Amino acid sequence: MDVGRGRDRHVGRGAPVRVLVTGAGGQLGCDLLDAFADDEVTGRTHAELDVADEAAVVDAVTGLAPDLVVNAAAWTDVDGCEGDPLRAHAVNALGPWWLARACRLVGATLVTVSTEHVFSGPPPHESDGTPRGWTEFDPVAPANVYGRTKAAGEELVRRTLPEHHIVRTSWVTGARGRNFVTAILGAARTRDHLEVVDDEVGAPTSTRDLSVAIRELAVSGRFGTWHRTGAGTVSRLEQARAIVALAGLDVEVRPISAAELTRPAARPSWSVLDATHATAAGLTPLPHWRDGLVRLLEELGELADPASSSAS
Length: 312
Fold this sequence. Notes:
It contains ten helices and 13 strands. By secondary structure, the chain is α/β, with parallel strands linked by helices.
């Protein structure tokens, strides 16, 4: 095998590319396999490839010699990361680094997925005092182990491989995994009321939409850090109420504050990522978070009135 041949290849629009997707068993990984279906795509689940294992990563990447590696592997259990920072660092920081180093060997481009948890604190503001989303150029300030390890992974990729796309996203939900939507649906069927925080605000993002956005970015040749989330903003409380209403579930959703919850890890209160950079660069804006929610519920068979989905 010619390990260096990748330097002569170009990941561009039109021609199919050879793609390796890590974390292919997760909700995002599954949808990435669909998004790259017209390419020569290979998926590796955690059981098939542990990105924290450097030797395994090198073997996988040099063996396949892809044009593009899309890293959807991560340890996203925020409270779990807080209790085991070494494991979190191995997966979320070293994993992307090992992939970047292996990509450098074969001349591949790397897309690695990051998070709004690299930010924390009150929202930044425009000059008129209006809250704005975090931009790609705001300094990171993670408040938990998960965010710190993801920020470390970003920086290691930047220092290692110029041909990279770091994709920050937020509040990800898909049909083939556990997430806020599936948790609310499950809880709403077993309880007479739900309590959901009303002081955490973000932008829910459909894995279907995110996967398409990653495919677009991967062939764009525009390397660097990008924010890609569903359009619009919503509190966790409002999101939960939308879920139960669209699913036709008769359950009261009551507001509580984040401070009333006992959780090992702090969460960002403002998880809104600004899309100005991506939009100005010509990347396609993602659909509104509510549109993504309607399509997700329909895919799950949980939408109360599928005929009204276009009006939602």
